[in-house]
Amino acid sequence: MTQRDDRPQVTIFDNFYQYDFNLAPLKSDTIILAPQSDLIVLRFLYSMNLAPIDYVINKGDTITFSFVNNLPYAGSKIADRNKSLNYEYEQLIAHKNNLQPTPYDIYKQPVIVAKDVNDAMNNYHAVQRDYYDQSRSFLKKKLSALDSSKNIFNKYLGIFNFFQDKYTYEIAELDFEQNKLSEDSLHKIFDANKNAPTNQSYSYFFPFIEKVAEKVIVNHAKVVKYDNGPDVDYRDVYDQVRKWLDINDFYRKHLLYTYLKKIGSLFSTLDLQKYVSDFATLTHDSILVNKIHDEFPSANYYSSSAKDSLYLLDENNNRTSFQTFLASCKGKVVYIDFWASWCVPCREEMKNAAKLRKAFENKSIVFAYFSVDKNKNEWLQASTAEKLNVVQHNYILMNVDASGFLKSINFGAIPRHLVYDKPGNLVYKNATGPGSSEIQRLITYYLVH
């Protein structure tokens, strides 16, 4: 069955800070990073259905990736590092299963063996139960093979320790999910990590505690009722994790950051600002706070006077007001399209939007696209997919919740379209979409009046 994969192709972890990259297809591409840690972890997602490969890279090294045997092979400028650097690559080649899903791949993504969407949804947990024993055996063999290959790592024991943690906690996660991990064993794992070093690049203990938090906190948190059904109240999850004493401050910080992003995606500007302020005070982590500000433009909106307006942000982080935008369009017809990455009807109209722009090319008209997305990265990805990244006036809105202008036009469901005439008057509050013949007639009329 066909599925969409929005995961980044390359993820780099440096002292648990995560940086995502999508490399240019069929071209050479370069990533330059000034790491904080002595080691960084580069995770390469080379297949939609197969587990990514981890590469543990020494600070100061230069790594070149090329595809060998259909797998990404990392070459270091320091030759004796290549064996340890490509440990997981070599393991896949040795077992001759580099392009076939392993039992663990199927356990993690039951959709691989699903017949259709309904099968994937209805039998997800059944497939995991069926593949639990095989997956656990597969991971135990990986752990045993690692122990047998310890000499490969020689003076790079940090890399050995990373993979040892990885397979150990992947097994623990399997056991926990299938209720095979005793409460006593769980407490021992947490106790062992209470004083774990926090200067490492990354540890698979973190996804393990995310899984535990999901079961013991998220699944028992308050819910919020929406028109399309209830959903988890991640404000309550954040509050509970903040008081969770089983983990140390370092892991708590990164877990809170995970739920802070959920709050940004699902709740109001005021909620996000409240929790960002708490997070900044609690953690004093300017890197994560800045990442939130970058990903969620509404976190940067504080001016009370701006409530009368609407604030726009372009892909280069240039901020402008709606009034300034309109003033710059004086003497031209303006057609505004409110949309979002998650809005199916909006996305379906984008081909018609392109045709409409083409039909009025070189005319005195401005086509502007205002996204109500909360997550900037999701907006950027959708903009690129819909080729709006080449349109001059393409913005994400910063203050949808607080804008007096949007309230004045009874802004609600999207898609929504506005038309302004050349003098700058709002002549249509609910114009038709770009695929209608009516909008072409209206634009033609206002171009000559």
Number of continuous helical runs: 19
Beta-strand residue percentage: 15-25%
Main beta sheet: 7 strands, mixed
Give the low-pLDDT segments: none
Description:
- The protein is elongated, with a radius of gyration of 25 Å.
- The protein has helices at 82-85, 87-95, 103-108, 117-122, 124-148, 150-153, 157-177, 183-193, 205-216, 234-242, 249-266, 269-283, 286-295, 322-328, 344-348, 350-359, 376-385, 404-408, 437-447, and strands at 10-14, 17-21, 39-44, 53-58, 63-68, 71-76, 223-226, 229-232, 311-313, 319-321, 333-339, 365-371, 393-397, 416-420, 426-428.
- Helix 11 packs antiparallel against helix 12.
- The protein folds into three domains: 1-181, no CATH class; 184-295, no CATH class; 305-447, Glutaredoxin.
- Strands 10-9-13-12-11-14-15 form a seven-stranded mixed sheet.
- The chain is 44% helix and 17% strand.
- The protein is an alpha+beta fold and 449 residues long.
Short recap of the structure:
The protein has helices at residues 82-85, 87-95, 103-108, 117-122, 124-148, 150-153, 157-177, 183-193, 205-216, 234-242, 249-266, 269-283, 286-295, 322-328, 344-348, 350-359, 376-385, 404-408, 437-447, and strands at 10-14, 17-21, 39-44, 53-58, 63-68, 71-76, 223-226, 229-232, 311-313, 319-321, 333-339, 365-371, 393-397, 416-420, 426-428.
Task: Output the keywords.
single chain; 449 residues; alpha+beta; seven-stranded mixed β-sheet; four-stranded antiparallel β-sheet; 19 helices; 44% helix
